[in-house]
Design brief:
The protein has about 160 residues and is an alpha+beta fold. The chain is about 20% helix and about 10% strand. It has a three-stranded mixed β-sheet with strand order 1-2-5, with no helix packed on it. A hairpin with a 4-residue loop joins strand 3 (about 55) and strand 4.
């Protein structure tokens, strides 16, 4: 009997059910960080400053179903907009699958362990500060973290 391939290897992002789509999120928290765009170069500059709804330890949104009410500019990822979101981290499952790549070995869907993204050192767990800590949004520029743009997909994972 041949083993069935997992859904992310057989379905396009458009074909996935909502639960399948949501399960692609590895819980790294990188997409919940404040980013700036250089007006001259278009370069995306990430910071270690997180959205006010981000729980820095669990790496989850504290009000995911209602997040747009509190954070109107929160971008909902969809199969239709992922291609245009160049600021998504290179290790992001949505981005990787859209680019025809595989999931990283540390991804929770591969390991069966939601902690694997943290154990592999890919997440921002307990490494960020809330945007509510600043009077001016520009103050987040004091926390620029260019290392967050590195592709961590190939991090050695022993499980």
């Amino acid at each position: 009997m041949m083993a069935r391939k997992p859904f992310w290897e057989t379905k396009s992002l458009n074909q996935m059910t909502v639960p399948e789509w949501e399960s692609l999120c590895d819980g790294c928290g990188l997409c919940c960080l404040v980013r700036f765009e250089d007006e001259d170069t278009g370069e995306i500059i990430p910071t270690r400053v997180h959205c006010q709804l981000f729980n820095t330890h669990s790496c989850t949104c504290s009000d995911y179903p209602n997040r747009k009410k509190t954070v109107p500019d929160c971008i909902k990822l969809t199969p239709h907009n992922i291609e245009r979101l160049a600021w998504m981290p290179p290790s992001c499952a949505y981005r990787r699958l859209n680019e025809g790549k595989t999931l990283p070995l540390w991804h929770p869907l591969i390991t069966g362990d939601p902690e694997s993204v943290h154990t592999a050192g890919v997440s921002v767990r307990d490494q960020t500060v809330s945007e509510l800590s600043f009077d001016q949004a520009e103050d987040a520029m004091d926390f620029v973290a260019l290392d967050l743009m590195y592709d961590k997909s190939d991090v050695d994972w022993e499980g």
